[in-house]
Amino acid sequence: MARQTTRRRTWIGVGLVLGVAAIGAGAWGVQRWAPFADDSEAVAWPQNIQPLADFVEHTTGQQFVEPIAIEFIGEVQAYEARVGVATTEPTDADRADAAIEEGIGRALGLWKGEVSVLAVRDAYAKAAPFPVTRLSDERTIVVNAAGEVALLPALVRAELTLRLTQALDDQLFHTTERASEAATSQDYQVMLALALGHAIWVHDRYVEQLSDDDIDEYYTADEARWEEYSAGVIAEVPASYRSIRVVAQRLGPMFIEALSEEGRELVEHAFTNDLPAALDQVSLPAGKYLRRDRLEAVAAPPGPLAAEVELSNQMGPFGLYLLLSTGQPATDALTAADGWGNDRYTAYVLDGRVCVDVHVVADSRDDADRLENGFNAWARARPPVADALVARRGTDLYATACDPGADADQPVPTEEAIDHYLGRAQEIEWRSDYSGNPALAECVAVTLYASYLFDDESSDYWTAADGIEQDCLDAV
Q1: What SS3 state is found at 345?
Q2: Is 350 helix (H, G, I), strand (E, B) or coil?
Q3: CA gap 253, 199 in Å, rounded
Q4: In terms of DSSP H, where are the helices of 174-289?
Q5: Nearest by Cα to 461 from 438, 427, 432
Q6: Which among 99, 131, 273, 472 is placed 20 to 30 Å from 173, CA to CA?
């Protein structure tokens, strides 16, 4: 249990705090494609970075093919000035786009009230930076430390393994460039899950091998960092917005762990010629990636003839889960969302209101039955002024809703519901690591999280988990 506790705290401390900017800060451009090259020359590192670079290469089985500049800045204010995110006054176009996004969120029931997307983005931009920052467009890692002979704290060393892994993967697989060129939100989320998931996975293994004193130092610093971040960001940002921002990097380490247990080469294939198609394959690697669950064909809703169409995109299985969780218990919403086969949504303005049409294709008729029940419950939970409607044709589900306005009250995704979805991923990761059998781990976690709400103190989950594990052993 001690190892699980360590993994859990690492997962929370890193996964929640990391932002999308960690991969999207800049593009390195076209580089030499040389994954797994055996003839690359050794890259020289500063004295206190060398052991960390060695750890990253050993853990990943890969080698750096180009040097990375390491810049040390000891003074905190100078460091923050160097790596801080520049903010500019929003334009009229920015405000108009933000108003559409705010209306979409209220229409779908992701949030309610006066949510300011611009204020949310500003809160993320103003959050205190980590003590290690990777500037991908400069091929530089900036460290808040005195210099290459400085003794680096455990938190800084751990963070360096994460940033070094990101840089290594970018050299080999062009992760930043591919993420910036993603055609849909799911394509982007998949690249984020791989790039940050792999980096967090390496980071977690570094933390696991720290001495007891270093572990104590690490968690003391990590908890202080988390409290500071919570005060600056958590209070300003709706739970659903935060969860959409971090879901890929929460699922990513579990996906990497599951593939590593099946064979290290599978991780390499996932980055190169066997990229997951969407987050459903990342969230259930044994059932939907290793045994491939292909995306279903789907068409984006055209929007009404009289409407001004603003955008069309993909919601994905997690976005679908958030919607369903506002009308169903998290157990039912999660099971239904697992039946996601593909989707598109279209946002438009009609009669001065932001509205959204959603088209979801289920994996099977049974999945469509569950999704239909979920959408009907979602529609019933919307305020009457939202004009929510649901329809079905075979395995195709259709839903529409309009912005009910900032004054309307409605249920929105809760922290508990979000934890339920992300908790299953952690359960799969723990059990894959412990058993070495991702299919068994997934079977237990899927069954357990389809049956129990973990905020119910009357439930004996662990006794139930033992029974479920035995059933799964017989099945896989």
Answers
A1: strand
A2: strand
A3: 8
A4: 175-180, 185-208, 212-232, 239-262, 264-271, 279-283
A5: 427
A6: 131
Per-residue pLDDT of the chain (476 residues; tens, 9 = 90+): 233 333 333 333 333 333 333 433 332 222 223 334 444 567 899 999 999 999 999 999 999 999 999 999 999 999 999 999 888 899 999 999 999 999 999 999 999 999 999 999 998 888 889 999 999 999 999 999 999 999 999 999 999 999 999 999 999 999 999 999 999 899 999 999 999 999 999 999 999 999 999 999 999 999 998 888 777 777 778 999 999 999 999 999 999 999 999 999 999 999 999 999 999 999 999 999 998 889 999 999 999 999 999 999 999 999 999 999 999 999 999 999 999 999 999 999 999 999 999 999 999 999 999 999 999 999 999 999 999 999 999 999 999 999 999 999 999 999 999 999 999 999 999 999 999 999 999 999 999 999 999 876 666 777 888 899 999 998 88
Helix (H, G, I), strand (E, B) or coil at 397: strand
Report phi then psi at 232, rounded to 5: -90, -30
Q: Is the dihedral of CA 312, 313, 316, 322 positive or negative?
A: negative
Cα-flanking dihedrals φ and ψ of residue 262, to 5°? -85, -25
Tokens of 289: 């990636």
Q: Where are the alpha helices (DSSP H) in 263-329?
A: 264-271, 279-283, 316-325
Are residues 193 and 248 in contact, defined by beta-carbon separation less than 8 angstroms?
yes
| Strand 389-393 relative to strand 353-362, pairing | unpaired
Amino acid type, 370: R
